[in-house]
Automatic annotation (TrEMBL), chain A:
InterPro entries: AA_ABC_transptr_permease_3TM, ArtM/GltK/GlnP/TcyL/YhdX-like, MetI-like, MetI-like_sf. Keywords: Amino-acid transport, Cell membrane, Membrane, Transmembrane, Transmembrane helix, Transport. Gene3D superfamilies: MetI-like. This is Amino acid ABC transporter permease. NCBIfam families: HEQRo_perm_3TM. It holds the Pfam family BPD_transp_1. PANTHER family: AMINO-ACID ABC TRANSPORTER PERMEASE PROTEIN YHDX-RELATED, MEMBRANE COMPONENT OF AMINO ACID ABC TRANSPORTER. The chain crosses the membrane at residues 12-40, 61-79, 91-109, 129-147, 190-216. Belongs to the binding-protein-dependent transport system permease family. HisMQ subfamily. It is found in: Cell membrane.
TrEMBL record, chain B:
This is Amino acid ABC transporter ATP-binding protein. Residues 18-252 form the ABC transporter domain. Belongs to the ABC transporter superfamily. SMART domains: AAA. It is a peripheral membrane protein. The lineage of its organism: Bacteria, Bacillati, Actinomycetota, Actinomycetes, Kitasatosporales. Keywords: Amino-acid transport, ATP-binding, Cell membrane, Membrane, Nucleotide-binding, Transport. It comes from Streptomyces lycii. SUPFAM superfamilies: P-loop containing nucleoside triphosphate hydrolases. It comes from the Bacteria. It is found in: Cell membrane. One of its GO terms (molecular function) is ATP binding. InterPro entries: AAA+_ATPase, ABC_ATPase_HisP-typ, ABC_transporter-like_ATP-bd, ABC_transporter-like_CS, MetN_ABC_transporter-like, P-loop_NTPase.
Length: 224, 258
């Protein structure tokens, strides 16, 4: 039944490993950039607020495919950006990560901002009354509590990101979806099984993520 | 509304620490602080009382600029309150504040709450800061709770930790914004006792409260506010036994006789 799945011919685990790497690099990048964006959105400086708001509204409402293709055709082929040299394959991976970070950070930021809203105003007031500056209030008091309350929504973002990495196939990054495309062409008589294999592969990645972060979310919740 | 001129009986402040001069503030159409003049001397304990919505909490919060004012001036130790920024943060470090709802940092232990300002604002060495934090927690009677989180403590204990957190900054003046209003009756005294002790030790204090017993025993001066104005300032025994303004007489008759 699984004759089509010739692991000599198709590097299934290698392809999913690229998917995992895309996800991890993009997740870390999105978390950092999303947190910075959230900081800007609540900052007292109008220019920062304006920038972050505009950025989020543009990026969040642009199809991911457009962003990913634009990194390859725009940044790489037209402007010649390789983000650190290497051949087109390596550059493609990094460009895809850049695109995913740029896109996913907007969702991280908005989750985090809803988390900031769950932190009582009095927490920030008490911190200001002690003489802490804006950045200290944000990084020492508000964000740590905000993060704890948005672990579950961030898990959603991470799961969506994991599945969104399939878009990188559009610029030839050799991850799971690109291999699937190849297998669909070569193994058309087992097409539903091909779908099932890849769907299962993604469930293996995302289901434990959701369960683990659900558990973490309960553990780190701030008791008031 | 009857217009009552401010009656002052308290002696003029010898060494002014906090000076509010002609302060006005609006919340939209509501004129919440009207021409407030108030001088608090070093070492003085001023208790602010008055009906709900009279502006006493707002007054307290303007002193460290948690509320901005529309006009007038506020100076602390000779320096006018700066605008938001580094200068203001520096000044706030010298003004301790205790809130009605405690506002202990929920994700930090009791000890970390008392350490935070020392480490991040005063840049005190960790070891010294911890010694001081533990001494302060001992002073307010919660030394054995140091490693717990705020939510595990009773309201009275939380408020005493909040006082220790403010004291850890060695403030020049302490502001108390209805510190016992969110407490169960049986826990009010443990907080008031800490405040009494603080008053006896010579701390400059501004206390907004409904605890008339505390006002009587600990205050050097009582300030009575109504409708955004300071209606009467007097020494406590004089204010409680012989209030001059009709508004204060009315207020006291409602709360003192049952």
């Amino acid at each position: 039944m699984f004759d089509f799945l010739d692991l000599e011919q198709y590097d299934l685990f290698g392809a999913f490993w690229v998917t995992v790497q895309l996800t991890l690099y993009s997740a870390v990048g999105s978390l950092v950039w999303g947190t910075i964006l959230a900081g800007m959105r609540v900052s007292p400086v109008p220019l920062m607020r304006g920038f972050a708001t505009t950025y989020i509204n543009v990026m969040r409402n642009t199809p991911l495919t457009v962003i990913i293709v634009a990194t390859s055709l725009g940044l790489y082929q037209t402007l010649g950006m390789t983000l650190g040299g290497g051949d087109s394959k390596e550059a493609g991976f990094r460009l895809a990560v850049l695109g995913f970070v740029a896109y996913t950070a907007t969702f991280v930021c908005e989750s985090l901002r809803s988390g900031i809203n769950t932190v009582p105003v009095g927490q920030a007031e008490a911190a200001r009354a002690l003489g802490l500056g804006f950045t200290q209030v944000l990084t020492l008091i508000v964000l740590p509590q905000a993060f704890r309350s948005v672990v579950a929504p961030l898990a959603n973002v991470l799961i969506a990101l994991t599945k969104n990495t399939t878009v990188a196939a559009a610029i030839g990054v050799p991850e799971a979806a690109l291999l699937m495309k190849e297998m669909i062409e070569n193994e058309s008589d087992a097409i539903f099984l091909v779908f099932a294999v890849f769907a299962f592969g993604f469930i293996v990645l995302t289901l434990p993520t959701g369960l683990l972060l659900g558990w973490v979310s309960k553990r780190v919740a701030v008791k008031r | 509304m009857t217009e009552v001129s401010v009656t002052k009986d308290a002696a003029p402040a010898a060494d002014p620490l906090v000076v509010l001069d002609n302060v006005n503030k609006h919340f939209g159409a509501l004129h919440v602080l009207q021409d407030i003049d108030l001088t608090i001397a070093r070492g003085e304990v001023v208790v602010v009382i008055g009906p709900s919505g009279s502006g006493k909490s707002t007054l307290c919060r303007t002193i460290n600029r948690l509320e901005t004012i529309d006009s007038g001036s506020i100076t602390i130790d000779g320096k006018p309150l700066p605008a938001e920024g580094r200068e203001l943060a520096r000044l706030r470090a010298d003004v301790g504040m205790v809130f009605q709802s405690f506002n202990l940092f929920a994700h930090k232990t009791v000890l970390e709450n008392v350490l935070l300002g020392q480490l991040k604002v005063r840049r005190t060495e960790k070891k010294l800061a911890e010694e001081k934090a533990r001494a302060l927690l001992d002073r307010v009677g919660v030394a054995n709770q140091a490693d717990k989180y705020p939510a595990q403590l009773s309201g009275g204990q939380q408020q005493r930790v909040a006082i220790a957190r403010a004291l850890a900054m060695d403030p020049k003046v302490m502001l108390f914004d209805e510190p016992t209003s969110a407490l169960d009756p049986e826990m009010i005294n443990e907080v008031l006792e800490v405040m009494q002790q603080l008053a006896r030790d010579g701390m400059t204090m501004v206390v907004v409260t409904h605890e008339m017993g505390f006002a009587r025993s600990a205050a050097n001066r009582v300030v009575f506010m109504s409708d955004g104005r300071i209606v009467e300032e007097a020494q406590p025994d004089q204010f409680f036994s012989n209030p001059r303004s009709d508004r204060a007489k009315d207020f006291l008759s409602k709360i003192l006789h049952h």
